[in-house]
Amino acid sequence: MSNKKQLSFFERFSNKVTSWAGSSYAFSGAFLVILAWAASGPFFNFSETWQLVINTGTTIITFLMVFLIQKAQNKDSKAIQLKLNELIAADERASNRMVDLEDMTEEELDKLHKFYEKLSDLAEKEDDIHTSHSIDAAEKVDQIKKAKKSSPVKKVGLTGKKEDMLSDATGKSKKPVIKRNAK
């Protein structure tokens, strides 16, 4: 792809260092430095200065690597989130509420996790393993259940009178429904 955007100096530098730091060459180099340091101990009489050299060097390298590793993880995490968001948006059965979950608080994520545990339990009870359960479908069912609980029930349609009918998504009538008395 020749249309790639020109990366900043820091971006190019951090990509190269991150890539190199995760290589076997970097590990081998670090191992050789430690061996050379240990082998030089007798020449320096294992002095405090000798110990200070390795302590200072490893501390500085570790401090800098923490930021480079975090930068790489942030970039990877963002790319993965975008790919998952695209998959969610592309699937008509998926709930678009799942897009940008990473912006939720820990408490909201815990609540959502408990909800999906309940959906998992429902799915296990289904005869058809391909039955889909989503947040949106579950909320609709929950609203219907709450509406049924909130009003007294009167059966209609079994006496030959005009039957109240539910309609499905296409607008076609399905079956007699239970009519609620409004108070």
From TrEMBL:
Biased-composition ranges for Basic residues? Answer: 172-183
Q: Which residues cross the membrane?
A: 20-38, 50-69
Q: Region annotation Disordered: residue ranges?
A: 146-183
Q: Which GO terms describe its biological process?
A: transmembrane transport
Determine if Transmembrane helix is one of this entry's keywords. Answer: yes
Q: Which UniProt keywords apply?
A: Membrane, Transmembrane, Transmembrane helix
Which InterPro entries does this chain map to? Iron_permease_Fet4 (IPR007251)
The answer to keyword DNA damage applying to this record is no
Question: Where in this chain does the entry annotate a coiled-coil region?
Answer: none
Name of the protein described by the UniProt record = Low affinity Fe/Cu permease
Q: What is the originating organism of this protein?
A: Daejeonella lutea
